[in-house]
Write a structure and sequence with these properties.
The protein is an alpha/beta fold and 310 residues long. 47% of the residues lie in helices and 15% in strands.
Length: 310
């Protein structure tokens, strides 16, 4: 290790996270390498390339933290590994027939985080999007990062459905709230084992809800759910994450898994104020503004919606 001091629990969590990322990448490259140079095989290389970019973007954010100088060698080696995987994927794709590469890229699943002020309608937008995608034959993961069960209601599942059980998480002193995804359990295995099928077919994975008997369930599963979203690299799935209302979760980078952030804004001026605060926090990812419940109301100044929902 590059630091002279012993690693703290937080540092150990960082190293473990890097090791888990390396395992995800190794699985993806093995899957891609076993395929052909047709559309389906090329799709796997697109998935590998995207996962490398996602992890690199997340690593850049971590490299601004206090551990960056202490563990510069470890972070640098991880950066080089991810860069190498991305370069390998792009080299393979450059050798594929252009029409095949374009078709396979068009099949790359969506990664969308939905944010906005409470009451703007983000859970309704998230749930409707998931169900419409599933109706078109897409495999969809609907992830709820809010302790309120709005997404469950929008999807049409019981608010007590799903969630990571105790066997899927483990204590770790360096993780936020002291819990994380259990060692040896991959994000893909979580999606396979612990999601619940909603009407029309999307798979629902919620944060633990605050109940009468367990007030701490969200704390036990939050980091694990974020690890699942960041590490679920299957290119054939669409992933939609409904984030908690307000700026706190984007500030803490819960949107790190996404390739695009949907900012939902309602007609009220307070909703616009929240949207303006959100946009700088998610500026590392392309954003789309959705104006919800707009009929004859004018657009908010400075917030030009790509979509208007009456």
């Amino acid at each position: 290790m590059s630091g002279d001091e012993a690693p703290s629990p937080r540092d150990e969590w960082l190293f473990d996270s890097l090791a888990r990322q390396a395992a995800v990448m190794a699985d993806l490259v093995a899957t891609a390498g076993a395929g052909d140079r047709g559309v389906e095989g090329s799709l796997q290389w697109w998935g590998l390339e995207r996962q490398a970019r996602r992890y690199l973007r997340n690593l850049e954010a971590r490299s601004r933290g206090p551990a960056a100088k202490r563990w510069a060698d470890e972070l640098g080696a991880h950066h080089d590994m991810l860069t190498g995987y991305g370069d390998e994927a792009r080299a393979i794709l450059s050798s594929v027939e252009p029409e095949v590469a374009a078709e396979s890229e068009s099949r790359l699943g969506l990664r969308i985080a939905v944010v906005g002020k409470g009451g703007a309608g983000k859970s309704m937008i998230s749930g409707t999007l998931c169900r419409l995608l599933a109706r078109r034959g897409h495999r969809v993961l609907a992830a709820d990062l809010d302790t309120n069960p709005g997404l469950a209601f929008s999807l049409g599942v019981a608010h007590t459905s799903g969630g990571l059980p105790a066997e899927a998480v483990e204590e770790h002193g360096g993780a936020a709230y002291g819990w994380r995804l259990r060692s040896g359990l991959s994000p893909a295995e979580v999606v396979e084992r612990y999601t619940v099928e909603a009407p029309d077919g999307p798979r629902f994975l919620p944060l633990g809800k605050i109940g009468d008997t367990d007030k701490t369930a969200p704390k036990h599963t939050l980091v694990a759910l974020l690890e699942v979203l960041l590490g679920f690299g299957d290119p054939g799935w669409d992933v939609v994450g409904d984030l908690e209302a307000g700026p706190t979760t984007p500030f803490e980078r819960y949107h790190a898994f996404a390739d695009r952030v949907v900012v939902v804004v309602g007609p009220a001026w307070r909703s616009a104020m929240t949207a303006r605060r959100l946009l700088p926090l998610v500026a590392d990812v392309p954003c789309v503004i959705v104006a919800n419940r707009f009929r004859d109301e004018p657009d908010h100044p400075g917030l030009s919606p790509a979509v208007r929902v009456p």
